[in-house]
Amino acid sequence: MAARVTAHRDYTIAKIDDRIYSGFLEHLGRAIYSGIYEPGHPTADAQGFRGDVAEVVKALQMPFVRYPGGNFVSSYNWEDGIGPREDRPTRLDLAWHTSESNEIGIHEFMDWCEIVDTKPMLALNLGSRGLDEARNFVEYVNGPTGAYWGDLRKKNGRAEPWNCRLWCLGNEMDGPWQIGQKTAHEYGRLSGEVAKALRAFDKSLELVVCGSSNPKMPTYPEWERIVLEHTYESVDYLSLHMYSQNKAKNTAEYLALSETLDRYIGTIQSVINVVKANKRSKHDVAICFDEWNVWYHSHEQDKAILQGMEGWPKAPRLLEDIYNFEDVLQVGLTLNTFIRRADVVKIACIAQIVNVIAPIMTEPGGPVWRQTTYWPFLLTSLYGRGTALRLAVASPTYDTETAGEVPYLDIAGVQDDAGRTITFFAVNRHPDRAITTAVSLEGFAAAKVVDHQVMTHPDLRAVNTMEQPDLIAPKPGTGAAVEGGILHLTLPPYSWQMIRVG
Ligand code: AHR
After folding, report:
1. Is 291 annotated as catalytic?
2. 172 has catalytic annotation
3. Angle between helices 222-231 and 257-278 (to 10 degrees)
4. Which keywords fit this entry according to its UniProt record (predicted)?
5. pLDDT above 70 covers what percent of the chain?
6. Is residue 447's pLDDT more than 90?
7. CATH assignment of 17-316+349-374?
8. CATH number of 2-9+389-501
């Protein structure tokens, strides 16, 4: 099977915003407790943060980490997580039916951000709470001393404001599962007023308003239109979420989901444009895809806890999806989609980072290991920075229920800022045929392959485990070459690969 691709130096989509390689960390399951934080662990620092976990997180070079939820935030009192630890209350978390000790709060999270070299993107509770809590929290985090909240922060050990720029106005407010769910009009009014108050404090904050929880919501995409009608001029980003699943074990359909993701983004881009035109606005609103990943492997095992049959456990094993090789392809396809939508998707957060639907797993008192999906995220984050290329792709296709005709070859191209290297990320969706691919490199000086990493495995269900942590990992590719301005490469059946030429 053969495919042809043309990359031209002058045909570009947009500069990729590095923030599409951000992550999400929620007070959920073992993400925090025995995830990033485990006092007494052999690698723990003086504050109790696991050094082994910090190291593998840091390697991902996530520009931002969204915190503290998620559904958790919609009944969270941020004040519970400040002040002396011994005085912090244990609360029942209504979102995940667990106990929250509040050992980790905003101060500790900010310290951890420094350790892993990332920046915070903080979510506000617009579910059980509202404007007052939101403005107080923002002032606590960013306000000067000499006034109540800044002075309280100083008393709690931090005089300097943290100067957090990115704020989410609630989470998934359209969802019936959300504490404090609202109609689009209710949420639009509230978030518009919260945005006004926050801007009265600091005009330059970047604000994210909630879009639909996923494209299957009955209110999608009217929700986005109504919410933006209320908030367009006061917000910078519209938040979208999407999780992929393959419950039916139908790989062909599963791998077509990235096409629906692409259409989802396209539809919302159109809604944004309609509202912009209605308002005769000069302001731009971009997409913040602040939750995306594969999530379904753990659904069955989570039921007892989520239905309250196990009381209110502390840091139980929740949403611990164990990712297989097939999920490598899905994560690669999702990242390729964000690169190709670089003109409108400016922030994206893989949900989540540690233990909870995460590329990184830990064992209490034991090791950390990388799931299969760690690898496409790592390599795309490291090398998918620069300008997205508008590739012309001619690939054989197949028919799907999910998205109609889908190409076997999925490919994204990125030129680095120095103009020296072009990086391609490619997925072969075909189960048993390799794709012989010729990439015509037009207007580039690229002369040779400088790096080539391939992920493939005969068993789609193969996983990495604590005992066998490196079963699924990239391996150096072979046989690719640049000849006469054409990159020749072969994509094995069901494979993900990164190839860099320069
Ligand atoms: O990431 C897990 C959950 O998925 C988040 O808490 C919520 O926002 C979404 O439904």
Report:
1. yes
2. yes
3. 40
4. Carbohydrate metabolism, Glycosidase, Hydrolase
5. 100
6. no
7. 3.20.20.80
8. 2.60.40.1180
